[in-house]
Write a structure and sequence with these properties.
mainly alpha
């Protein structure tokens, strides 16, 4: 069906609203990533667990919002020439760039936490029977998963297939070991989702 300028203007406004909601959550997620980095550096498992809970909640909110705006982005991308002539389009582009910049900063903070990978390996070797060892496996898997890029894929142009397949395989193997050893772990459901993502993406 024909999409009029008025229709596009409404879509642009809806997209802006969605991006503003995502940016609010991304700012909070940036704070959580900083807390996670500090907790990882101090090997504070309890603080890492608290940050993980908050991060999971925020990520669920982001995914929910993204499901609502994905079709808007697709429609506007397909009619970019018409949409860019309309009021509000430059603001939408600026908001998208702001959201992408926030994601980049979060990933950079998480990248700085990659030292946690070595710490997780040491923790697993030194404390194989520790009650929190499942989190060490989860953390190790996340590090190789490359900082939740799959969750942030809607802001990224990276193709998982173009990145290091060795890291992806190690991530899959670590998540599989967690699920096998600790099927009742609180981290098992998310680990299974990440395993499925890796299988489908590679």
């Amino acid at each position: 069906s024909e999409v009029t300028d008025n229709d596009l203007a409404v879509l642009i406004e809806q997209y802006r609203d969605g991006l503003e909601a995502e940016i609010l959550l991304l700012r909070r997620l940036e704070d959580v990533a900083t807390h996670q980095q500090s907790a990882s550096a101090s090997h504070d498992i309890e603080a890492m667990n608290r940050a993980a809970d908050e991060r999971d909640r925020l990520m669920a909110g982001l995914v929910s919002i993204e499901e609502g705006v994905r079709h808007l982005r697709h429609t506007l991308s397909g009619r970019r020439d018409e949409a860019r002539r309309l009021p509000g389009y430059p603001d939408a582009v600026a908001l998208h760039q702001q959201a992408a910049a926030l994601v980049a900063r979060i990933l950079k903070t998480d990248e700085a936490s990659l030292e946690a990978l070595a710490a997780a390996d040491r923790f697993i070797k030194l404390h194989p029977n520790h009650p929190n060892v499942d989190y060490a496996y989860y953390l190790k898997g996340l590090c190789n998963f490359r900082d939740d890029l799959g969750m942030f894929g809607f802001f990224s142009t990276d193709d998982l297939a173009e990145r290091d397949p060795k890291a992806a395989r190690e991530s899959f193997d670590t998540f599989r070991e967690l699920v096998t050893r600790y099927p009742e772990s609180r981290y098992a459901p998310d680990s299974i989702k990440r395993m499925n993502y890796l299988v489908n993406a590679l």
